[in-house]
Amino acid sequence: MMSKTFAPAKINLCLHVVGQRADGYHLLDSLVAFAYVGDRVRVMPASEMSLEVAGPMAEGVPTDKSNLVWKAAALYDVPVSIALEKHLPSAAGIGGGSSDAAATLFAMADLTGTSQMPAGATELGADVRVCLARQAARMRGIGEDVTPVEGMPEMHAVLANPGVALATPDVFKGLENKDNLPLPKRIPRWRGVWSAIDWIARQRNDLEAPAIAIAPVIGTVLDELRGLPEARLARMSGSGATCFVLFEERAEADAAAAQLAAAQPGWWVTAATLR
Ligand code: C5P
What we know:
Layout: E1 3-20, E2 26-45, E3 50-54, H1 68-73, E4 80-85, H2 96-112, H3 128-133, E5 137-141, E6 145-148, E7 155-161, H4 168-173, H5 193-201, H6 208-214, H7 217-226, E8 233-236, E9 243-247, H8 250-263, E10 268-274
Cytidine-5'-monophosphate binds at residues 25-26, 28, 125-127, 142-143, 168-169, 172.
């Protein structure tokens, strides 16, 4: 028997840093969506644990028990061989590790026929809980408070990463102000893509400035994204360096992705639909 799951990219459409706990973790208020590009995880019962990483973004990804997919699988008492196909860049603000961990938990649950998540599942990473929700959601606290957002219109995006890996703690450390305004109390029921993008545009990613201070190329990525035809809103996701730009139509996103990929052959560029 074998179980396969998909690990979509997590996009922080907005990310407000609203405080800091005594243990150093930051309190967030974020609207998260999932892009249907991502990694693939396959688990198979085996005599001992193993991990094989392949795919276009496999370089540098650990193949030992330091990898979150290994840690996630090890929460079950069943040794498995894990195959991870990496399509998403790592340390990139789109939840690669957390989404892979969540996908592994789903695959292990399927394999073992258990519906209860094992103890320690959500401690694998701050974004694991939202990745287990796998739908548009408001994420608060340090990531443990996840409320699904219903009725978010389908939006289309281009994701771009210039190939610099950012360490999340360093980006948080560079924040000038840790007590910023939260998102509006209620997330509206948007009437369409246009009103959703308009609302998102009025929010922020508070980690953008400290990330740009560490990696100025992120500013270049945002400028390039804003310059694409029909681009509606460009912003960084998570602690970077991946940025996204939103479009109303999939064809606009596809054309913009092709244009950007040709102009910046060294960047990771993809069009994706957000759900
Ligand atoms: O949990 P995760 O591995 O995603 O977090 C990486 C690091 O980012 C944490 O060790 C912490 O320094 C920082 N972080 C934070 N506040 C959060 C999430 C992460 O300060 N809400």
